[in-house]
Design goal:
13 strands; 13-stranded mixed beta sheet; Aminopeptidase; alpha+beta; 376 residues
């Protein structure tokens, strides 16, 4: 098994066309879709978001072919514990953490990734994996390999989030899964909004319009509560640059799914999604809060429902929303279970002892906290 890791410093493009071509090939053959680790978004994130202490790209290869790609970072703390560990890289705008593993070589890929982490002097403590699908290819391969190797594996947390996966057309889905009272209210709001001017729904098709759409989205998001709290993309030059770069690369690769609703030519709601394989990930939504009485957020999601269900190339869409999200949970009926794992790392000598102690300490602290919570 051939293996390699690449440390990347902030702002330093440490990959070229050949490297990106290898990642693109792996993404096309991935057993589990993850738009956030596909080259479009990953390269944009590496260019603009990979700050200190830096990101490493752990690769697993077999016969010269790339079969696994896992972006990781070492963190000095694990939750409240002063225990260092290595984890998959989940930046502020990454909502799914499944590594890219080649279809048909899932266990082999994870065997290579874990072997490299075991041997890496910089890999502290244990492997902390966030944002995996409990029913996905990565979770299954990890479970099988950990059983085979008698390697410690502990599920830390799980939650369900909304997902759209249905063979129904948009109208049938809407009528089946959304209450009649809510559907009636939405129709009323659509009519009231139309009284204000010309309402137009569009899906981005022209590359020349992309810079304008990105600017509109950044301004629209910043005009609301995210702007006031400083969490809008436009509040950070790096975040805004990441968004523009990711959208441009994804559009060129045929993976950007960008919608908007205009009122008299002005954007009042926008939604950016990123595709990978037969699926898609809902990335960010923005709407004019001054028109909140018309529920523009719900209206753009209704437009999204029609766009997704009308596209034979999209079999499902992950909402990437928090659990129990009041808006999207009322519109999408399906759920995806997201899990976190701690995976024991091995090594030699004192390193092996230290990693075992860190894994045991984290698990023990969690067990004690659960008991205390149960007693309170």
């Amino acid at each position: 098994m051939d293996m390699a890791s690449h440390p990347l410093a902030s702002g330093n493009r440490a990959y070229g066309p050949a490297q990106r071509a290898r990642w693109t090939d792996l993404a096309a053959q991935a057993a589990e879709a993850n738009a956030f680790y596909a080259p479009d978004m990953l390269c944009a994130a590496l260019d603009h978001l990979a700050g200190a202490p830096g990101v490493r790209l752990v690769e697993a290869q077999a016969g010269g072919e790339l079969i696994g790609l896992l972006p990781v970072m070492v963190t000095p703390r694990h939750g409240r514990l002063p225990v260092a560990c290595v984890g998959n890289w989940i930046h502020d705008h990454c909502f799914f953490g499944a590594p890219l593993i080649r279809r048909g070589q899932e266990v082999a890929a994870w065997r290579g990734l874990l072997a490299q982490l075991d041997a890496a002097h910089w890999a502290a403590g244990f492997l902390y994996l966030q944002g995996l699908d409990a029913a996905g290819a990565n979770a299954a391969a990890l479970e099988a390999l950990c059983v085979e190797q008698r390697r410690g594996r502990r599920e830390v947390h799980r939650y369900d989030r909304a997902m759209l996966r249905s063979a129904l057309d948009a109208e049938s889905y809407w009528e089946t899964h959304v209450r009649a009272k809510k559907r009636k209210e939405i129709r009323r709001l659509q009519k009231r909004l139309a009284e204000l001017g010309t309402v137009e729904q569009r899906l981005l098709a022209d590359r020349a319009e992309l810079p304008h759409w990105c600017a509109d989205f950044l301004a629209l998001e910043a005009s609301g509560w995210k702007g006031r709290e400083g969490t809008a993309l436009a509040c950070s030059a790096n975040d805004a640059a990441f968004f523009r770069a990711a959208c441009a690369a994804a559009f060129d690769a045929g993976r950007l799914h960008f919608l908007r609703i205009d009122l008299d030519g002005r954007a009042i709601a926008m939604l950016a999604n990123f595709r990978h394989g037969e699926g898609a990930f809902s990335f960010k939504i923005a709407f004019d809060e001054e028109l909140g009485r018309f529920s523009p957020g719900v209206l753009i999601e209704l437009a999204n429902l029609h766009a997704v269900q009308g596209d034979p190339g999209i079999a499902w869409m992950d909402s990437c929303a928090a659990t129990d999200h009041p808006m999207i949970d009322s519109l999408w009926a399906e759920r995806r279970t997201i899990v976190q794992y701690r995976i024991a790392l091995r090594g030699r000598g004192f390193q092996r002892v230290g990693r075992a102690a860190a894994f045991a300490l984290a698990n023990g602290a969690e067990a004690i906290a659960s008991r205390v919570k149960g007693l309170s």
